Amino acid sequence: MVFSLSIVSLGSDYDLAKATGQSDVFSYDALPLEQLDALSGSSGIEKISLLGGNDEVTDNDETRFYLGNAGDDIILGNGGFDTLNGGAGNDTLQGGDDDDALIGAAGNDSLLGESGNDNLNGHLDDDTLLGGLGNDILNGFKGNDFIAGEEGDDRIIGHLGDDTASGGDGSDTLYGQDGNDDLSGDEDDDRVYGRAGNDTLSGGLGQDSLWGGNDDDHLFGDEGDDRLDGQLGNDTVSGGSGQDTLFGKDGDDALSGDDGDDRVYGHAGNDTLSGGAGVDLLWGGDGEDVFLLAVGEGRDTITDFQIGLDSLQLPEGVLFSQLNFQVSGNDTLVKLSKTGEAIALLKNIRPFDINRSDFIQITPDPATLGTNLTAVKDWSTQLPFLDHFKLSRSWITQANRGDPDYNGQWSTNEYDLIEFDEHGWVTSLPAPEDPPVFTKVSTFVLTADTPNSLPAGKYVVLYDGEGTLEYSMDGTKIAAESAPGRDVVDFNPTGKGILITLSATDPNDTGNYLRNIRVIRADQEDLYNSGEIFNPLFLQKTDDFSTVRFMDWMETNNSTQQEWSDRPEVEDASYAEHGVPLEVMIDLANELDADAWFNMPHQATDEYIANFAQIVKEQLEPELKTYVEFSNEMWNWSFDQTRYAQQKARERWGIGGNGYMQWYGMRSAQTSDIWEGVFGDDKHRVISVISTQTAWKGLERAVLDAPAWAAEGNEAPYKHGIDAYAITGYFGRELGLAENTATVESWLSEPDGGFSKAFEQLRYGNLLANSKSLEEVQDLFEYHANVAQERGLQLIAYEGGQHIVGVGSIVNNAALTEFFIELNRRPEMYDLYTELLSDWEEAGGTMFAHFSDIGEPRKWGSWGALEYLSQDGSPKYDALTDFIATHPDPNK
Length: 892
Description:
The chain contains 15 helices and 55 strands. By secondary structure, the protein is an alpha/beta fold.
């Protein structure tokens, strides 16, 4: 029957009603009133114990204690201050109105507090606790519980197990305790504690406080002005919207303020800090911290950046070379060069303290292409200047037929007896009766013999002063079109060039000697008179390259320059002997919008280097970078600078061996220090370079570390503001070695002239000894990329491309010279260059300066990407420009 009760009276204060053991339904509201009174007594509290079975009980608003015992029970408390204990089984307990106590006990129970300030305890197994209305206390205890406070100011404690808890409406307090818990405060101002385990804490709405506790926690402030504290462990802390305060505390934490003006504190450990949107304050604390910079999200203040310990991570797509550093009191503003946006303020850091190694780039520096410029000589096919006399050869002393000591010689070899002014203009000539044999001097211009390399036609020769100029070889004066100070010469190029002879100067002995000679194409005279310096076609063919390396323009190898007064000057008669003046090189870089690469002479004094740097700082456009390198190839015993370095190493340290490279490392560091000292707050415009011999693995350690110099108490050279580690990218040198000559010569009799064998060797290196094929070069790229990465340096190439030329006596093998020149012209060379640059990019290389731009192929090498200026293209040049088209310089 429906109401089958066994009533046992226990006195006036406690009555026990026992069910029959079947699945009974009790509804006290349906009982006669006198039976209810008899059941409950007059004023006592009843305990209803359900023995076994799946029971359902609905209370009638009285205050009772229900014990479900075994079975999956449903106990509905309704009104009254009830205590519902589900006992064993998967029970459903519903408190109803008033302040109830619900105990799930064993089984996977569902506890619903509903109205009133309830106390819910899940106890064993995986329970669901819902507080409902009121200020409830919910305890999950054992098991993986789901707990929701719902409305009211609730107190939630997960205890053991991996619990999921949410506060709901109201100002709630949540504790995860043991286990990996997921806790959410939801609405209003909540307090959330993870305690033990790897917990996830979310504040939700309101001004919340979150504490991670032990282990590795995830804290999310969500909306509102929150306080998040990771405490122990390696935590991830995100502020969300609002003005939040984040603490990482112990462990290696990742902290992000997200939206709003936040305060982010890393404390102990190696932390990663990000302000997110807004004007944020970041403090890393102890450890090696990483600060994440952002674009368009407000300027963050970093209060304790430690040079050499902490790092600044750039936003994706932003490169170190695109930054600008500006003094702000005792601090440094980090800005984007292009837009001027300030993305960070580094407290108590000066711009000259900052190095490239302090930054992490998400996007590596792209592989860009620069070019070396061919030396300025009279045989050049580069033709960079409107005034071709700037490429003229050194004066030759000569005598006329009939002079007393004339014996038919071409040159009297009396150069040292010529009287010059400070700019190399001849001030006087000896009379025939004077002791010197020579009575006139001559020079050459436009001597290249590559067909079609030099424009024929009329040239104008302008000059100041009084005297006589004569023209011969490939030049003929047109007297009818000439006048004092302006000769017109017809140029018919055959490879001999125009011989310009100064046969008389200052004839009236007034000091008005003939000087300021200029040789200009007639159709470019107006352009020259307008103030232009450079040949427009030269600018056009060079414009695509991101960087111009002036090593050969500066006559770096075997340089004799020491003092600042030794430098070439703009007014010099010719730039062919002592190099192009600095001011002209700067003008070219500005005109091309290209970064400039300068090489300091190996004997240059510190004053020379500082003065050089000062002019670059003042005259080079501020958005352009300057690569600065001490000398060139200090490992190369073909040059005076290497022998000089060895001598200096012996004098200073008494060592041989690799002492020359240690001395080079020392001077590179000192050069970097000087340049950065001159540039000061603008030192980001300087890229200090240090290089090594590419094929000699391990030699770089002498350069980068210089142990003999370090023993004097100095830091290793690479720590002196060095930004870039430079190598070469040459392939194919083995074809010109004497040991391979017989094999290469045998290829010439192949049906295709040996080209297929040559390109097989150049690509795979399987046919000749001492190979430097693309495969070997790729291995060298990877080796040096690791060296650069270990030292925090950018990997660049100071020279590179094909290196197919006779070595030693093989340079005079005419058949091989012709073969080597033709190899450079073959379409297969395009593919090799494309592979070379792809390998360079894959290895992580950045700027690659090809050697060289424009040059006549000769037995000394086919170095030019173009053979002459007006050449439409070539396999090498086309490969380079195609690479540039797909790898644009982000700074141009």
